[in-house]
C-alpha cells in the first residue's frame, strides 16, 4: 500500500487553469491564480502557462468547456514537440473523480486540483509525528471518493450471467472491483487507526494545556505567509522556522513570553488560506485547539498584499468555522515597509480606489474602524514593535485581572514598591 505522506519536491513544469464566473471576476481570478502559482512554486513546480475561461459555473464533466480543453491539449502537444514537457495541469478548484478521469483521458498528463496541491505541500512540510498523522488522514479522506479512477484498467467485466442473462453482471465481479474493494477496506482501516492516534494526541495536548498554569493564552492567527512566525521570533526571542513560502508553519509552537513583569503564553498557528480543504480543518483539530482555547487573538495581516481585505474575511470565516470567533482581537497590519500605492494623475477624474490610498490614509480608515485594537508594523524591519508589545501587554493585563484577580501582584513594579 502506498504511503501518501512521503512527498519529494521535484521541479516539474505546470500549467494553471482557472474560471471567470458570475461570482468571480477576471481580477479576482488572476489574483487566485497568482496564489495557485505560489502554491505550485512552494510544492516545487515551475508554472509556464495560465489558461482562464468565462463560464457561469464549472463544467460538471470537464471543468472547462471542450474548446478550452482542446486548446490546453494543443499547447501541451506543441511544448512536447519543442522538447519542453509539461508535467502537470493544476486546476484552481476541487475536482470530482469524474472530472479528473475525463480531463486525464483528454490531456494525458498528471492532473491536480487546488486541494491535492495543498495536501502535497502539507505532506512536504510535516515534521512531527502529530503533523504527519494529521496530513495522512486528510490525504486518505481526499483519496477515498477518487479511488475508482486508479483502477479503470481493471473495471468490472461485462457479459450475461445468472437467471437475468443478457447484460447483467451479478456474480461477475472482475479483478478491478475486487482490488477496489480491498483498497477501500485498507484505507478505511488505516483511517480508523489514524483517528485513534489523533484522539490520543488530543488527550496529550489537552493535558499539556491544563498544566500550563495560570497564564493568559495569546494566539497568532492569519492568512498563510503574512509574517506570524517572524513576529513570534521577535516577541518570544526564539527561533521558530520562518520562510517566504506558504505553510512554512504546520505545528503549533507555544512559547512563554514575558513583557515587563507579565508572563503569558504565545502560540504560532498554521496559516489559513481561501478554499482550505475541509478535511484539513477536521484533521488539524488538535492544532486549531490552541486558537479555540486562546484568551486573545492577534490577527496578523499582510498590508502589502492587494487582496488583504479578502484575506481578513477568509480568516474570520475560518475562525467562525472552528469555533474561534467572538474572542478579543488585535488586528496587526504587517509589512508596512513593502506597501505600495498608485498615485492618481491630477487630470484623472475617475473615482479613487483602494489602490490609490496612501499608507497614512489606509491607517486612518482602519484605526477609525478598529479603534485601539489596530496596529501597523514591520516585523522584518522591526518598525513599531515596541508599540505592539505595549498594546499586547495592556490587553493581556486586562484579561489577567479578570481571569485571575488574586494574581494582581504580578503588576507591581520596583518603583511602585519603593513608593
UniProtKB/TrEMBL annotation:
What's a Gene Ontology MF term here? Answer: ribosome binding
Instruction: Return the GO cellular component terms, semicolon-separated.
Output: cytoplasm
Tell me where in this chain the Hflx-type G domain is found.
216-400
Compartments (UniProt record): Cytoplasm
Q: Aminoacyl-tRNA synthetase as a keyword?
A: no
* Keyword set, alphabetical order: Cytoplasm, GTP-binding, Magnesium, Metal-binding, Nucleotide-binding
Pfam families this protein is in? GTP-bdg_M (PF16360), GTP-bdg_N (PF13167), MMR_HSR1 (PF01926)
Q: Which cofactor does it need?
A: Mg(2+)
Q: Give the family this protein belongs to, as stated in its UniProt record.
A: Belongs to the TRAFAC class OBG-HflX-like GTPase superfamily. HflX GTPase family.
| Database matches in NCBIfam families | GTP_HflX (TIGR03156)
**Entries under HAMAP family matching the protein:** GTPase_HflX
The record's subunit annotation is:
Monomer. Associates with the 50S ribosomal subunit.
Question: What name appears for this protein in its UniProt entry?
Answer: GTPase HflX
Q: Which organism is it from?
A: Bacteroides acidifaciens
